Amino acid sequence: MNLDLTGKTALVCGSTQGIGKASAIELALLGANVILLARNEEALKEALKDLDISRGQKHSYICADFQLPNELKIKIEHFVDTNNPIHILVNNTGGPASGPIQGAKIEEFIQAFNNHLVCNHILVQSLLEGMKKEKYGRIINIISTSVKVPLKNLGVSNTIRAAVANWAKTLAGEVAGDGITVNNVLPGATLTGRLKSIISTNSKNKSKTVDEVQNEMIKEIPMGRFADASEVANAVAFLASPAAGYITGINVPVDGGRTGSL
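^ thats the sequence. predicted structure below, dont judge the formating
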């Protein structure tokens, strides 16, 4: 099975922590040149130190804020104009705040839509031509299992994640003939800063200890534990590889069996 990414270049968003950073690490281990993208330049510089360079890989970063889509567009277009083509795009950014949908503000939907779908679209439009010329493209979106079964108390997130999933499925059908695949990875409860934040919020709302909330969540997972970010990253790395060349337009849950649907 060909998992070799030597000579390929990957752009990984939200890559200074959590699933984004874990994905960048795995792609580098497979031989890819990795471009980290996040808004904190110092964190980007630190994350670069954790990427494998044993095959002569050359890693770099782009400092950009997804809350400023126009700025992101300018920076990615400049990068594309002055660098080699990017073969792999991992769309990933922090999810909207938790809360019931009936109390969500209009501004929350707009901001989440911009952070997720609009920024994903900006990046794809900037990279597609290069992928087509190289006859190799992998677009992988880190979303959520909520696209299959909406999660309680994540009203805005459930809505926006579903929009991204359908955008991706539509795009997959349009670019498949160019040798470009588009897939979604759906993490379940994964040991990241976002999970800790959700547990903390639920602890306060339910007047329960953090341990009590955490144990309740674990009971819903057939495998009896949370995922490590590297386990989600493994799915990302496979979908980015030549071995996954005939897989496109799918949702891949990495959730320990928790999602109650096929």
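Helices lie at 18-29, 41-48, 69-82, 106-134, 155-175, 193-206, 210-219, 229-240.
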